[in-house]
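Hey L., structure's done. Input below.
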Amino acid sequence: MTAPRRYRVALCAYPRRYRKDRGDELLSTLADGDDERGHTSTREAPALTYRGLLERGRIATSSDGLLVIAASLVLALMLFNLSWGDSVMRLHPGVIVGWNMGPGTWVEAALLASACTVLAAGPGRAVDDPRRRRIATAAVFFFALIAWAGPGGIFKYVLPGPGELADYLGNTAAAIIANWHATVPFAAATAVATWLALTAIARLRPAARRTALATLMAATGVLAIALTVTHAGPQPIDGNDALAGRETVNTLGAALFVTGASILLALVASGRRGSNPY
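Output:
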C-alpha cells in the first residue's frame, strides 16, 4: 500500500523493519482516523508518531540495540581521533617532556575490528550470508583507512566552513596515501580480524552469538584501557632510567571514558535475555 504524502512523517517515526512488517496495518489505522473529507486526524497522526518514536527507543535500549550503541561509540572515538591521554614530566623550570598515552596501533585495530564485527553481525546481517560477509570485510578495510586518519578530529578545535573542510579532507586523503606503509597494514589487519570474527560467530548457536559479540567488545575495550594506563607515568628517554623519579602529571583522555562506556553497554547487553537476530 502506498503511503499518502500526509502520512509520511508519521510513518517515518517507526523503524524500517517495523514499517515493512506492519506498514499496511499502520496505513489502515491512519485512514480510519481521517474525517469525511479525507483530512488527516489532528490526533491520530501525532499519536502514531509518538508510538513510532517509542518503538525506536525500545529497540535502542534492547540488548542488540545496546551492543550497536557500544560499537558506534568506538567508531566515533576513532573517527573523531579522541585522545587516550597525555603525560607531562617537568624536568626543571621551563623544561617539560610530554608524550601521548595510548594502547598501541594494533590494539586499536583489534578494538575497531570488534566494533565493526558487531555492526556487521547485527544491522549488516553478515553472519550467515557469505556474500554480505565479503562486502562487510571490504567496507571495513576502507573504513579503517579513514579511521586511521581520524578526520573528525578537526571538529575538536574549530567548526570549519565548506572550503576549509574540503581542503582538510583532501589533505587527510593525501596523508592516508602518503603513509600507505602504515595505513594499509592497519586497514588490512582490521578487515581480516573482522572476517575471522564473523566466520567464528557463524559457527556458534544463534543463542550464543550475542554473548560472544558482547564478550569480544568488552575484552578488546578492557585491553585497550589497561595498556593505555600502563603507558602512563615516567618513561625512560633514550635509555635514561634516571628520569623515572621525576614528577609526572597524567591526564586521561575522552577515549578512555568512551571505551569504558562501550564496555559497560556490552556487559549489560550480554546479561539480558531476548530475541536474537544474529
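The longest strand covers residues 85-92. The CA atoms of residues 85 and 101 lie 5 Å apart.

-- N.
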